């Protein structure tokens, strides 16, 4: 059954009405040579059965597929609510993978993968800064002045000289790799040479300089458990050492973790933590001790962190996987990271080019005159008299008026008291334009994007034929028991017994039903093959 289902999904194509070379017709409905080429070339490497690689055999299967599809449409299965609901759900999910700039996405994926191979050891100075501050030049100059001392001094001595009142954040971040920091911070870390201090740069947290101490091959991913005792507890040192002594004498680590560990997030699991890589947990001593363990089952000595005393047990270590193995995991991380803003911006830039548009719009001057600072506090109300006749923007055959944008503006307000009204208004227009471009792009996606169209058609027809086969062949109920018994009796020489071979008997019986059904479909939907076109196909795919 599952092989047949896979076959349905593989046999997908979109009709090419411009292709004049008809391969065959099903009740006068043409099936073109181009369709057969695409399907055959797409699936030939997946076919293990040498008989099915034969072009004639493949054509027979293809014709059977088209016959079943004709029957499904004849029965109006494509109009059933459950089918339409499932198809629409899939279409929406599929669209999401096409709402991105693929080239930019691949660029960021490859970059992220290369960075997962290496880890950088970094310390930094951060001076907090917000949009409302007016002295960014002074902040940048101050960090420039810090660069030499930050290069030459350790953190303690640097703080003694420049940060006695803890005015700045100065810290050792340890080792990290891709996705552990926000993207622009990560970029500077990987682009700065070992033993150098970067120029000042900005993130959403403020302005930084960073010093790169080391770069090393990635240590991979590790899975450990731990037993923790808080430092603040009386006799905490004696208690953790007593637990370690018990482990060394053969007591179960997991049992003692459940009984004594004060980390309540892991103690009930025997101390086991989620897997992590360098820079993923907020404790350099813990991370260093964990990665020093070599073999599964190894136990650390007592480890001190700012949280308490720990004993660590190693469960597994995993090296960096190949790009193909980790690609989809990286893609999920990419979509959740600040990197994706760049991909999203690139996608909308491509839509601007496609529709010959710009984020600059002369009509914004009109809104400069009617929008006041109440917009910054999210309580702006549009005045009366805004025209619904004057166009704000036109995309393909769709026009949006001044009133359309005003309505969007009123219903999509957010508090931005520290930003300028001029910038907020243009940010809102950018969002408005992105929203409208995206809707039009999605509405036309099946018509304009052949790859999307083919994949959607693959699912559309596969789901349709699965429902047909489910109703016609695969569903086995009590009313079929007598027929199945009769089939077994007539073919008992092929089986040990009815009970022991029941699964095979059902499969063989369903195959018999399908063959008989195909004969009926060929009578109902006459097939006429263009022999001349098929001879050319056979010659093209000859393996002799």
Quick take:
This protein is α+β, with helices and mostly antiparallel strands and 544 residues long.
Q: What is the CA-based Rg, rounded?
A: 33 Å
Global geometry: extended
Beta-strand percentage range = 5-15%
Biggest sheet record: 4 strands, antiparallel
Structure summary, number of beta strands: 12
For the largest sheet, list the strands in their spatial order: 4-3-6-5
Low-pLDDT segments: 1-19
Percent helix: 40-55%
Secondary-structure-derived class? alpha+beta
Tally of individual helices: 22
- The overall pLDDT average reads 90
How far apart lie the N and C ends?
A: 32 Å
Write the layout of secondary structure elements.
Layout lengths: L1 H9 L11 E5 L2 E4 H11 L6 H4 L1 H20 L6 H16 L5 H15 L1 E11 L7 H17 L2 H8 L6 E8 L6 H9 L9 E3 L2 E12 L3 E10 L5 H13 L4 H8 L23 H9 L10 E2 L3 E11 L4 H14 L2 H16 L9 H7 L20 E5 L2 E4 H10 L9 H23 L1 H4 L1 H25 L6 H10 L11 H23 L2 E3 L1 H10 L4
Antiparallel strand pairs: 1-2, 1-12, 3-4, 3-6, 5-6, 7-9, 8-9, 10-11
Helix pairs in contact: 1-19, 4-19, 5-19, 6-13, 6-14
Offer a few descriptive terms.
four-stranded antiparallel sheet, alpha+beta, three-stranded antiparallel sheet, disordered N terminus, 544 residues, 22 helices, 14% strand
Describe this structure in words.
By secondary structure, the chain is an alpha+beta fold. 52% of the residues lie in helices and 14% in strands. It contains 22 helices and 12 strands. The chain has helices at 2-10, 33-43, 50-53, 55-74, 81-96, 102-116, 136-152, 155-162, 183-191, 236-248, 253-260, 284-292, 323-336, 339-354, 364-370, 402-411, 421-443, 445-448, 450-474, 481-490, 502-524, 531-540, and strands at 22-26, 29-32, 118-128, 169-176, 201-203, 206-217, 221-230, 303-304, 308-318, 391-395, 398-401, 527-529. The strands form 4 sheets. Strands 4-3-6-5 form a 4-stranded antiparallel sheet. Strands 2-1-12 form a 3-stranded antiparallel sheet. A hairpin with a 3-residue loop joins β8 (303-304) and β9 (308-318). The longest helix has 25 residues, at 450-474. Residues 1-19 have low confidence and may be disordered.
